[in-house]
Design a protein that fits this description.
The structure holds two protein chains of two kinds. Chain A is an alpha+beta fold. Chain A has helices spanning 50-58, 100-109, 115-128, 144-156, 174-191, 202-208, 226-231, 236-241; strands at 9-18, 27-35, 39-43, 65-70, 73-74, 85-88, 162-166, 194-199, 211-216, 219-224, 246-255, 260-264, 269-274, 283-288, 307-316, 320-327, 330-338, 351-354, 361-364. Chain A has two domains: 9-236, Rossmann fold, CATH 3.40.50.300; 245-364, Nucleic acid-binding proteins (OB fold (Dihydrolipoamide Acetyltransferase, E2P), Beta Barrel), CATH 2.40.50.140. In chain A, the strands form four sheets. A six-stranded mixed beta sheet of chain A has the order 6-7-8-3-9-10, sandwiched between helices. A five-stranded mixed barrel of chain A has the order 11-12-13-19-14. In chain A, a hairpin with a 2-residue loop joins strand 9 and strand 10 (219-224). By secondary structure, chain B is mostly helical. Chain B folds into three domains: 102-169 and 272-299, no CATH class; 173-268, no CATH class; 326-546, MetI-like (MetI-like fold, Orthogonal Bundle), CATH 1.10.3720.10. Chain B has 27 helices and two strands. Chain B has helices spanning 2-11, 17-34, 52-92, 97-102, 104-109, 123-139, 142-150, 156-166, 173-182, 189-195, 199-204, 206-221, 233-246, 254-262, 271-278, 285-293, 301-306, 326-357, 360-375, 378-389, 394-402, 417-441, 445-453, 458-486, 490-495, 503-512, 517-541, and strands spanning 309-312, 315-318. In chain B, strands 1-2 form a two-stranded antiparallel sheet. Chain B is elongated, with a radius of gyration of 36 Å. The chains are: A alpha+beta, B mainly alpha. The interface between A and B is medium-sized, with 25 and 19 residues. The structure holds adenosine-5'-diphosphate and magnesium ion (MG). The site of magnesium ion has 2 residues of chain A, from helix 1.
């Protein structure tokens, strides 16, 4: 992605800021570049400014500062209906007084497409979401999942190159949501459209996206493909927000390119990978994923740092064992081990020693 | 109205006692089907051994009774104060017993008279009228009847009044004198009282007996004793007429036979001449035709009158041009109500839209302004419009001051249709804004955004997506405003002048000034029918289930 010049950028946010009330910035200095055909997810807690970004892109809100470009053209002054961006709303916003067919042909009608063409396109779009038999119904006569498909078909029927989706699966139950997640990504890749997808559900973000932009406090905290995001979080917010994470607090003792020695608050010193620390003496939060922690010595590398731990709780979860430990003053230290025949089941009160590879232990900002 | 019913069912999603009953019934059937062996026929029993269905019905009945008891006060109130007056009004609009009650003999006697013949009826009819009018005059009922018939034919009122004054002084004392000359005991009221107690006498003197009964009933009601009062000429006249007719055969009293033998030689008085003396209009067949036409107990006359027609002796025909006012008033009422409704939509829609799209706090503040008119007296508001609109009023003064109109030709904006429309639009506007607002509040702004994201311009998005969803509000507002304005009274009365008044002003006039309640009732019934028709048409076009008040 090193050669991403503004030439292949399809969607671009340049130093975009947004304030509703003139006092607080809801979006602070947003920079984002998306190539054509990418499935990008904006992930973040509620109120972090995701919807606002989407609305600015769609044209329903104006950026207070900065520029948004679509296919190289600044669109700040183009009204929403001329942007040609498909949109799926959280509550679907299907027009209740129109049938499904009428809903779908609406965007074609306003584009003055001929009747026979319109009918063919509507039919194709409905078939695409497997709702061909429902054209004559009203939205109220469909279930939530079916309405969701129609909303998707309507956003795609006029063949936009960019589609925005704001928490489109938020109202569905878990099973349906998983099915739709797959169908949406499948459709997007089949049609080659560019998608900006907003969600607060990290699993959804990780499973669906080419890249995920993690939002917090009006800023993108990290933007990366899902695996990179999970395995190499760039700051402690991302580490906490994505997946399960153990945090140990301490101070940097020694710092080199590949290694940082961190003295934890109870005096123990551990080897870490320096990610977001700049100087010796800085406070840091060390982040370790639960599944990367080992407590059986034979599985640990030679020379790995070992820490004393007390077992607090053992939870049997079927495929994995989840054990809560007390480590270096942190009572919520979780480790996960696969349920294998030779796996050890720890008992509460047991004293053990745990360790990990230095590269799995990331020293992040405090 | 079948639509109404179906919507009723739609909204009644909540379980009703009936549902429970049906459910219980089907439960019974299912239980029976599942029951092993031949036990299928037995009903499911409750814990105390009664059939479950019955104990459920009993439990529900108690609920129903309680619900009924709760609504009873309102039900009684509505029945007494609303349904009953409407029924009374509908009844009054066709009721016409006054003619047959006041002139019972005349109405019967007129049966055989041909109103198309062009000649007044014969003497027996005048005799019947003589009796009727004499009694009515004593009861002071003849002027009321005159007023009633005057609605149908002008001049009848004064005819009755005039004749009423004369009817006691007809020359019929000729009969009295001749009969008492033959037998002075006829002068004694006791003779009459005794005579009229015998069925045989009564059978021999039917006309006299009927008149005697009516007359004595009147005397008793006045607290007089018939056995002590002088016998009136009118009774001697009926006695003479009866005897001449029947010869008094079968009478039990010999005194009757005595007179009967002599009647052939009596001097006679022509009652038609007596009446013609009182007022020569009695020889006019049209007067008699009117009485005959309105003799039945129920008449379409008031309704015909309401649509500028009349029932004449020659059938139903249009009233003279110069008397046709009601159709014009009806048309004007409907037309102006429509204009007022349209103006309310035009003015109210944007206001409701703004209210619905403002933050709640601001919207509530503005809502107070919308509701403000409700807090001032209707009279004050209407009078304020008078101040605004009159020729020396605020608007004209301003226009003259600005030089837009000359001092000589100030605009006439009050006491005409314009004034009524302006004032009523203002007064009824909240009734349009409120339902519109509550419907618009439920239309989420995402619909407009969705439409725009699909490529619709602001106008298309509004017209194709927002407007159709707001139609139920327009419908509810229009029904409210239109129905209210059709029956409006005070405002047109004050600012309407002559060209801006409504049918209701005419109704009020007939109720309080002309006292023609029958006509007022007929006009009111037509108004009621018009409103119901309007409602029906609305139901057909828009569908009443499309009306939402919130
Ligand atoms: N129309 C608006 N007017 C004022 N403040 C708003 C408006 N929309 C959103 N906000 C504020 O902006 C912040 C970000 O909102 P939003 O973009 O909806 O977040 P997200 O979609 O990530 O949950 C929130 O604090 C919210 O209160
Ligand atoms: Mg949001």
């Amino acid at each position: 992605m090193a050669d991403t010049s503004s030439n292949d950028a399809f969607v671009e946010f340049e130093r975009v800021q947004k304030s509703y009330d003139g006092e607080t910035l809801v979006v602070k200095d947003l920079n984002l570049t998306m190539p054509k055909g990418e499935f990008l997810t904006m992930l973040g807690p509620s109120g972090s400014g995701k919807t606002t970004c989407l609305m600015m892109l769609a044209g329903f809100e104006t950026a207070t500062h900065g520029e948004i470009k679509l296919d190289g053209r600044p669109i700040n002054n183009i009204p929403p209906h001329k942007r040609g961006i498909g949109m799926v709303f959280q509550n679907y916003a299907l027009f209740p007084h129109m049938t499904i067919n009428e809903n779908l042909s609406f965007p074609l009608e306003v584009r003055k497409i001929g009747k026979s063409d319109r009918e063919a396109k509507v039919k194709r779009a409905l078939d695409m979401v497997e709702m061909g038999a429902f054209g004559g119904r009203r939205p109220a006569q469909l279930s939530g999942g079916q309405q969701q498909r129609i909303a998707l078909a309507r956003a795609l029927v006029f063949e936009p190159e960019l589609v925005l989706m704001d928490e489109p699966l938020g109202a569905l139950d878990k099973q349906l949501r998983e099915k739709m997640q797959f169908e949406i990504t499948d459709l997007a890749h089949r049609l080659g459209i560019t998608v900006v997808y907003v969600t607060h559900d990290q699993t959804e973000a990780l499973t669906m996206s080419d890249r995920v932009a993690v939002f917090d406090d009006g800023r993108i905290q990290q933007i990366a493909p899902p695996d990179e995001l999970y395995e190499s979080p760039q700051n402690s917010f991302v580490a906490q927000f994505i997946g399960e994470n153990n945090t140990l607090e301490g101070t940097v003792k020694e710092l080199s390119d590949k290694l940082a020695l961190v003295q934890l608050d109870d005096g123990e010193v551990i080897d870490c990978m320096p990610v977001n620390v700049n100087a010796v003496g800085e406070r840091t939060k060390v982040s370790i994923r639960p599944e990367r922690v080992e407590f059986q010595k034979d599985r640990l590398k030679e020379g790995a740092h070992l820490l004393k731990a007390t077992v607090k709780e053992f939870i049997y979860m079927g495929d994995v064992f989840r054990t809560r430990l007390s480590v270096a003053g942190n009572d919520d230290f979780i480790i996960k081990s696969r349920n294998a025949p030779d796996q050890v089941r720890l008992k509460p009160g047991e004293q053990i020693e745990i360790g990990w590879l230095p590269e799995d232990c990331r020293a992040l900002d405090a | 109205m079948s639509d109404l019913k179906s919507t009723g069912q739609q909204t009644a999603d909540a379980p009703t006692p009936e549902d429970a009953l049906h459910e219980a019934a089907s439960l019974d059937a299912r239980e029976a089907a599942h029951a092993p062996g031949g036990k299928a026929a037995g009903p499911v029993l409750a814990a105390d051994g009664t059939p479950l269905k019955r104990s459920l019905a009993r439990a529900l009945r108690r609920q129903k009774m309680r619900a009924l008891a709760l609504i009873a006060p309102l039900l009684i109130f509505v029945l007494l104060t609303f349904i009953a007056p409407i029924a009374d009004m509908l009844f009054r609009s066709v009721e016409n017993q006054i003619v047959s009650e006041t002139l019972p003999e005349t109405v019967v006697a007129l049966k055989d008279w041909d109103s198309e013949g062009g000649v007044p009826p014969a003497d027996p009819v005048f005799a019947a009228l003589y009796v009727d009018l004499f009694i009515a005059e004593a009861q002071k009922l003849h002027t009321r009847l005159g007023t009633r018939l005057n609605y149908e034919k002008t001049g009848v009122s004064s005819l009755f009044r005039k004749t009423g004054r004369r009817v006691g002084r007809f020359d019929t004392d000729t009969y009295t004198d001749q009969i008492t000359a033959l037998d002075p005991s006829w002068e004694d009221p006791a003779t009459w009282v005794a005579m009229m107690e015998s069925d045989a006498n009564r059978a021999a003197l039917p006309f006299t007996a009927r008149s005697w009964d009516r007359w004595t009933a009147y005397q008793l009601s006045e607290g007089d004793d018939p056995a002590k009062e002088d016998i009136e000429d009118v009774l001697f006249t009926t006695l003479y007429l009866d005897l001449r007719e029947t010869g008094g055969t079968g009478a039990a009293d010999a005194r009757i036979a005595q007179i009967a033998a002599a009647v052939g030689d009596f001097d006679t008085v022509s009652l038609s001449e007596q009446f013609a003396d009182a007022d020569k209009d009695w020889l006019d067949p049209e007067v008699w035709g009117t009485i005959k036409a309105f003799a039945p107990n129920y008449t379409p006359g008031y309704f015909l009158n309401s649509v500028d027609m009349q029932k004449t002796p020659h059938g139903i025909e249009a009233r003279p041009e110069n008397q046709q006012i009601y159709m014009k008033l009806f048309k004007r009422t409907i037309f102006m109500s429509m204009v007022i409704t349209l103006s309310c939509i035009m003015l109210g829609y944007p206001v409701a839209w703004i209210l619905a799209n403002l933050p709640t706090r601001t919207a509530n503040l503005l809502m107070i302004l919308v509701l403000l008119p409700f807090w001032t007296s209707l009279l004050v508001r209407t009078s304020a419009w008078k101040v605004m609109l009159q020729q020396q009023g605020v608007i004209n003064d301003t226009l003259v001051w600005l030089g837009i109109v000359g001092d000589a030709d100030r605009l006439v904006m009050i006491n005409n249709q314009f004034g009524t429309i302006v004032a009523m639009t203002h007064i009824l506007l909240p009734f349009m804004i409120l339902p519109l607002y509550s419907v618009m509040q439920t239309i989420q702004p995402t619909y407009l955004r969705a439409a725009k994201s699909l490529g619709a311009t602001n106008w298309t998005a509004f017209w194709r997506v927002y407007f159709p969803q707001s139609v139920p509000g327009i419908g509810a507002g229009s029904v409210l405003v239109c129905i209210l304005s059709i029956g409006y009274y005070i405002t047109p009365e004050i600012v309407g002048g002559t060209t801006g008044t409504f049918i209701s002003n005419r109704i009020a006039y007939h109720i309080s000034s002309s006292l023609n309640w029958g006509l007022a009732a007929a006009l009111g019934s037509i108004l009621l029918a018009a409103v119901m028709l309007l409602y029906w048409v609305y139901d057909k076009i828009v569908g009443i289930d499309n009306v939402k008040l919130g």
